[in-house]
C-alpha cells in the first residue's frame, strides 16, 4: 500500500503529465488552425504560441522546430482521415472488399486537395510518404488481408509490407500531380486504378473499383492528443 507521501507524489506527477498533455494539444491545434489558413512557410512560432496562449519558450519544451510540429500535426490529420475513411468504407467491407481501399484512397486525395495545409507536406514527399505509411498502415494492411482472403487481390502475404510502401508512394506521387502540377482532381480515379493493378486486381475490376460513387464522408474531428509513437508502441 502506498504511503501518503507516495500518493501525493503520484498525484503531483499525474497533474504535471495532464498539464503537459493539455499544453501540447493547444500548441498542435493552434498550429493546425494557422497552417490551414496561411500555410507553414508564412507562419511563425510566435504566432503559434500566441494562438495557444502559452509563452514562446514553452514551445521548445515540446517541439524542436516549426517543422517538427508540422510533422506531429500531420500524424493527427492522417489519424483522423483514416478514422473517417474507415467509417465511410464500412459498408463495403463484407459485400465488396475490393472497393474499400480504392474508395479510401480517393477520399484521402479529395481531403488533401481541399485543405491548403497539405501544400507544405506535398513539397516534402519523403516525410509525407513516411507518415502515411505508418499512419494508415493498420487499416491498409488489414484491408489488403481482407481482400486477399476473399480472392480480390493476387498477392503473396510476405509481400504485403513492400506493396504497402509502393501503395503509399503512388498516393503521394498522385497527390503531387494534382496539387503541384495542377492536374484535375478527376485524375484521382486513374491513380486509384494503377494502385489496384499493383495489388494484382484485374484491369477491368480495377477500373470499376476506381470509379464507383463516393460514399458520404464524416466531418473532420481531429484528435490532437493522438501520438503515433504511442500507437506504434501499443501495437
Overall mean confidence score, pLDDT: 87
* Number of separate structural domains: 2
Question: Based on DSSP secondary structure assignment, what is the total number of beta strands?
Answer: 0
How does CATH name the architecture of the largest domain?
Answer: Orthogonal Bundle
Could you tell me the radius of gyration in angstroms?
A: 20 Å
Total helix count? 13
The first-level CATH class of the largest domain is given as: Mainly Alpha
Strand content: under 5%
Amino-to-carboxy terminus distance: 31 Å
Order of helices and strands: HHHHHHHHHHHHH
Shape: elongated
- State the CATH superfamily name of the largest domain: Tetracycline Repressor, domain 2
Poorly predicted regions are: none
Helix content: over 70%
Per the CATH scheme, the topology name of the largest domain is Tetracycline Repressor, domain 2
Largest sheet: none
Could you characterize the architecture of this molecule?
The protein is an all-alpha fold and 235 residues long. The chain folds into two domains: 63 residues, Orthogonal Bundle (Arc Repressor Mutant, subunit A), CATH 1.10.10.60; 169 residues, Tetracycline Repressor, domain 2, CATH 1.10.357. It is 70% helix and 0% strand. Helix 4 crosses helix 6 and helix 6 packs antiparallel against helix 11. It is elongated and about 55 Å long. The mean pLDDT is 87.
Any descriptors?
235 residues, mainly alpha, Arc Repressor Mutant, subunit A, Tetracycline Repressor, domain 2, 70% helix, elongated
Amino acid at each position: 500500500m502506498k504511503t501518503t507521501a507516495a500518493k501525493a507524489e503520484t498525484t503531483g506527477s499525474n497533474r504535471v503529465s495532464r498539464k503537459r498533455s493539455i499544453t501540447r494539444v493547444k500548441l498542435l491545434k493552434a498550429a493546425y488552425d494557422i497552417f490551414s489558413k496561411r500555410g507553414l512557410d508564412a507562419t511563425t512560432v510566435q504566432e503559434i504560441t500566441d494562438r495557444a496562449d502559452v509563452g514562446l519558450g514553452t514551445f521548445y519544451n515540446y517541439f524542436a522546430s516549426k517543422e517538427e510540429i508540422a510533422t506531429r500535426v500531420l500524424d493527427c490529420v492522417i489519424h483522423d482521415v483514416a478514422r473517417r475513411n474507415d467509417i465511410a468504407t464500412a459498408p463495403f467491407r463484407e459485400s465488396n472488399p475490393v472497393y474499400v481501399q480504392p474508395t479510401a484512397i480517393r477520399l484521402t486525395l479529395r481531403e488533401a486537395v481541399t485543405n491548403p495545409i497539405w501544400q507544405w507536406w506535398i513539397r516534402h514527399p519523403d516525410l509525407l510518404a513516411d507518415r502515411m505509411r505508418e499512419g494508415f498502415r493498420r487499416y491498409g494492411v488489414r484491408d489488403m488481408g481482407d481482400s486477399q482472403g476473399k480472392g480480390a487481390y493476387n498477392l503473396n502475404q510476405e509481400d504485403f509490407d513492400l506493396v504497402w510502401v509502393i501503395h503509399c508512394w503512388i498516393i503521394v506521387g498522385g497527390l503531387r500531380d494534382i496539387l503541384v502540377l495542377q492536374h484535375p482532381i478527376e485524375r484521382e480515379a486513374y491513380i486509384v486504378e494503377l494502385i489496384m493493378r499493383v495489388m494484382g486486381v484485374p484491369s477491368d475490376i480495377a477500373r470499376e473499383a476506381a470509379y464507383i460513387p463516393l460514399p458520404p464522408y464524416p466531418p473532420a474531428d481531429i484528435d490532437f492528443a493522438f501520438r503515433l509513437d504511442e500507437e506504434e508502441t501499443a501495437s
